[in-house]
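Worked example

This section walks through a single chain of length 301. The input is the sequence exactly as stored; nothing has been trimmed or padded.
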Amino acid sequence: MRIRSKLFMVMLMAAGAVLGQTKPLESPDPAPVMTARDILQWPAAPYDHRLPYGKDPLQFGELRLPPGDGLFPVVVVIHGGCWQAEYNLDHIGRLCAALTAEGVATWSLEYRRIGDEGGGWPGTFLDVGRGIDHLRELEYHYPLDLKRVVIIGHSAGGHLALWAAARYKIPRQSPLYLAKPLALRGVVSLAGITDLRTYTGGCGDAVRQLMGGTPADVGERYHQASPREQLPLPDIAVRLVHGRRDIIVPLAQSESYRVLSRTNRGNVQLSVIDPAGHFELIDPDSGAWQMVRRAVFSLLQ
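Given that input, the structure is written out below as C-alpha cells.
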C-alpha cells in the first residue's frame, strides 16, 4: 500500500510522542504501542471471494467463509484510515481471517473515500449502506444467516459502523437515505470517532474533507452523519472498545458516547484496555484481541 498523504506522517508523529515518553504511564516500563507503520506492513490476508456491490471499482467486499455447510453468522467489517483514499481494506484482513477461523463469515467492505471520485459526502456513506444491504443478495449464493449480523469498524470505520447502525433514523429527504436498511444484532466500535463536531486527533482535517465543510457551513450534514447525534438507539446493542493510550482517537470520544447513550437508556458497554493504543485493537496477536473477540461474540449469541 503506497503512503502518499501527509496524514500518515501526522499519525506517525503522534504515535512517536507516546514512544518517546520517559515517565511511566500505567506501569514503570510501559511497552511501546503499535503505529500506523506496523499495520501497513502486514501482508493482505487471503479471502474466499471478492464481490461487487455496485458499479464503481471501489464498491466491493471481501467475503470469507468458515469451513462447513453453515448457516454462518456474519460480521461486516469496515476498515479505518481517516476516510482517506490512501488506506484500503488490506490491513484489516487479519482481523477478518481471525474471526472467520472461529466460525463466522466476514464481509469486509471497501468504499469510496476522500480523494476518490465520488468519495466523501454522501458517497462514502452510501457505499457503506449499500455494501451492508448487499448481504441480502449474497444470501442467495452463500450460507449466510442474516438473522445474526453484526458490524465492526475501526477508527474512521468505527464511525461508519456506528452511523450505519442508526441508518433507520435517517429522514427520507436526506441524501444518505436508503430504504429498508438491513436489521442488525449490534455494532462494535474499535476506537471509533463518535462525534464529528468535536473530534480533534490524528486524522487532522479529514472530517471537514469528508463532510464538505465545517459544522458552521454544513451543520445538517453533521447532524445526519455524526453517531452521537443519532442517539438514542434503543433497539441496537453497542459495544465500544478503546485503548487508554490511544492518541489518534482520544478515549473521550467513546466515553462521551457511552454517557449520552446510557442517559437515554441505550444498550451500550465500554471496555477500556489500559496498555493499548490505537492499532492493537485490530491485531489478533495483541493482548487486546480477547476483549475485541468477546465484544463481537457477545452480540452473536
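What to look for: The chain has one domain: 6-20+31-300.
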